[in-house]
Specification:
single chain; 132 residues; alpha/beta; Rossmann fold; 5 helices; globular
Length: 132
């Protein structure tokens, strides 16, 4: 499995990288602009990501704007909805409007920080990314 971690907080980034590395190859970016570059490069190289952990609150381009751009790119490339990258939004905010907006924009799951690793594994299993 290929995973892209998009996180501006150093501690959260290291934690996710260490945890998710046991499930697949992880790339890390620190903001939405870098994430879009990595996402497009992966597609151009035929090495698409299976999952993106995407922080909502980031500088330059926030997670919801980044997710919208990712879904637009997938639509432009003719990627069927069943084959698009699985996106798990992450945030320390307790904001139901942001949760709603994330799902409306096209995320598959939402995880509050600090990340509960057992719940994240359950989400990955539910999304068909890892086996039981």
């Amino acid at each position: 499995m290929r995973i892209l971690i998009v996180e501006d907080d150093h501690v959260s980034r290291k934690f996710l990288f260490k945890f998710l590395s046991s499930y697949g190859e992880c790339d890390v970016t620190v903001d939405g602009m870098e994430a879009l570059e990595a996402f497009m490069m992966a597609h151009d190289e035929g090495e698409q990501y299976d999952m993106i952990c995407l922080d909502i609150m980031m500088p330059r381009l926030d997670g919801i704007q980044t997710l919208k751009a990712i879904r637009d790119i997938e639509k432009q490339k003719g990627i069927d909805e069943t084959r698009r990258v699985k996106v798990v939004m992450t945030t320390a905010l307790n904001d139901t409007q942001k949760v709603y907006e994330s799902f409306e924009t096209g995320c598959e799951a939402y995880a509050s920080k600090p990340i509960d690793t057992s719940k994240l594994v359950d989400v990955m299993m539910r999304l068909g990314l890892v086996k039981q």
